[in-house]
Automatic annotation (TrEMBL):
This is Serine aminopeptidase S33 domain-containing protein. PANTHER family: ALPHA_BETA FOLD FAMILY PROTEIN, PUTATIVE, EXPRESSED-RELATED (PTHR45763:SF63), HYDROLASE, ALPHA/BETA FOLD FAMILY PROTEIN, EXPRESSED-RELATED (PTHR45763). Residues 66-324 form the Serine aminopeptidase S33 domain. The keyword rRNA-binding does not apply. Pfam families: Hydrolase_4. Gene3D superfamilies: alpha/beta hydrolase. Residues 1-17 form the signal peptide. Keywords: Signal.
C-alpha cells in the first residue's frame, strides 16, 4: 500500500513540476506595480486592453494619406518607417505605428490571433479618427496582420503593402512538395521551432527557453539567417542612432512566442482564397520580396503572387530580409502604395 501511495505522489509531483516548466511566468504589465512605465499614448480597446501608439509625419488633420504601420518580429512602434521627410511633406503623409499585443507598452492578448490583430488595427483607426479608409503597411511578421486586414476588414482599406511578409508553410493551398522543399531550406533550428509552434504549441515556451539546443534562429539572430545584403544593411545601421528595444519588456511569451504561435499555427482562413478588395482598381495591394531572403523564401512568395494576380508583386534581385531599411527603399515602397509610382 505504501509503495503505491509513493508512486502516486511521485507522479503528482512530476506532473506539477512539468506543468510549472511549461507554464510561462506572469507578464509584467506596463503601469502595474513592478512593471515597466507607460511612456506612450495609448487607447483602451473594447475588451479592456490598452494599445500603445506613435504618430509621425504631417499633422493628422492636414494629411492627404494616412498609413497604419505594423512592426516586425521582436520589434515595436519605436522603430518607425525609414521614410524621408521630403516624401512625407510632398505627399502629406501621416503615419501611426502601434505596439502589437504583448509588445512594448501594449497589453498582452492571450487570445491573440490573425483576426484580433486586424480588429485592433480597425479600432485604432476608429479611436484616432482616421476616417473610413486608411492604408496599412506590414513588415515581416507584421505581414500576417495585413493578411488579417485583407480577410476581415477589406472595406476599411485604401491600400495595403507587405514587405517580406511571413509565410505559413501549412497554408492549405501550397502544393505539398513545394512547401516541403522550401521548409527544408530553412536552417535546422528554425525548422524545429516552426514545427513545434505549429504541431505542439504547448511545448513552445519550454523549447524556446531550454539551453541544450539552439531554438528560433530569428529570435537568437543566428548569423546564417542574414544574406550578404542583410550584412551590408546591418553595417549601415550601425552608424544610425541607437533605439532601445522594449519589445520584450513585459515578458517573452506574450510578445515573441505568441507571435510565432499565431503566425505559424492553424489559421481560420487560407490567404490564397482572399478575393480582390479593389475590383474597380480603387486601391492596390503590394508584396515586396528580396530574392536572397533566408527567412521568407522567394519561391513561396512567387506562388502566392501567381495565385492572387491582383497583388502587385515586386522582387529585389539582390535583396535579403532587411532591404527596406536602407537606400531609399521605404520611399519607393510608399510611393508605389500611395500614388502607384512604378520603379
Amino acid at each position: 500500500m505504501v509503495p503505491r501511495i509513493l508512486v502516486v505522489l511521485l507522479v503528482v509531483l512530476l506532473g506539477l513540476a512539468f506543468q510549472a516548466i511549461l507554464r510561462p511566468p506572469p507578464q509584467k504589465l506596463c503601469g502595474s506595480p513592478g512593471g515597466p512605465p507607460v511612456t506612450s499614448p495609448r487607447i483602451k480597446l473594447r475588451d479592456g486592453r490598452y494599445l500603445a501608439y506613435r504618430e509621425d509625419g504631417v499633422q493628422k488633420d492636414k494629411a492627404k494619406f494616412k498609413i497604419i504601420s505594423v512592426h516586425a518580429f521582436d520589434s515595436t512602434k519605436d522603430f518607425p518607417l525609414q521614410v524621408s521627410k521630403e516624401l512625407v511633406d510632398e505627399l502629406g503623409i501621416y503615419i501611426v505605428g502601434f505596439d502589437r499585443a504583448g509588445y512594448g507598452e501594449s497589453d498582452p492578448n492571450p487570445k491573440r490571433d490573425v483576426k484580433s490583430e486586424a480588429l485592433d488595427i480597425e479600432e485604432l483607426a476608429d479611436q484616432l479618427e482616421l476616417g473610413h479608409k486608411f492604408y496599412v503597411l506590414g513588415v515581416s511578421m507584421g505581414g500576417y496582420s495585413i493578411w488579417g486586414c485583407l480577410q476581415y476588414i477589406p472595406n476599411r482599406l485604401a491600400g495595403a503593402a507587405m514587405v517580406v511578409p511571413i509565410i505559413n508553410y501549412w497554408w492549405p493551398s501550397f502544393p505539398a512538395e513545394l512547401s516541403r522543399q522550401a521548409f527544408k531550406r530553412l536552417i535546422v533550428p528554425e525548422q524545429r521551432t516552426l514545427w513545434i509552434a505549429h504541431n505542439m504549441p504547448s511545448l513552445l515556451y519550454l523549447w524556446m527557453t531550454q539551453k541544450w539546443l539552439p531554438s528560433s534562429a530569428a529570435a537568437m539572430r543566428h548569423p546564417e539567417i542574414f544574406s550578404k545584403h542583410d550584412l551590408e544593411v546591418l553595417q549601415k545601421m550601425m552608424a544610425m542612432p541607437l533605439i532601445e528595444n522594449k519589445s520584450r519588456q513585459q515578458g517573452i511569451y506574450e510578445s515573441t512566442h505568441r507571435d510565432l504561435l499565431v503566425a505559424f499555427g492553424k489559421w481560420e482562413f487560407d490567404p490564397m482564397n482572399i478575393t480582390n478588395p479593389f475590383p474597380q482598381n480603387e486601391g492596390s495591394v503590394h508584396i515586396w520580396q528580396g530574392y536572397e531572403d533566408r527567412l521568407v523564401l522567394v519561391e513561396l512568395q512567387r506562388y502566392i503572387a501567381q495565385r492572387l494576380p491582383w497583388i502587385q508583386y515586386h522582387e529585389f534581385p539582390e535583396g535579403g530580409h532587411m532591404f527596406m531599411l536602407v537606400d531609399g527603399w521605404t520611399d519607393k515602397i510608399i510611393r508605389a502604395l500611395l500614388v502607384g509610382e512604378q520603379l
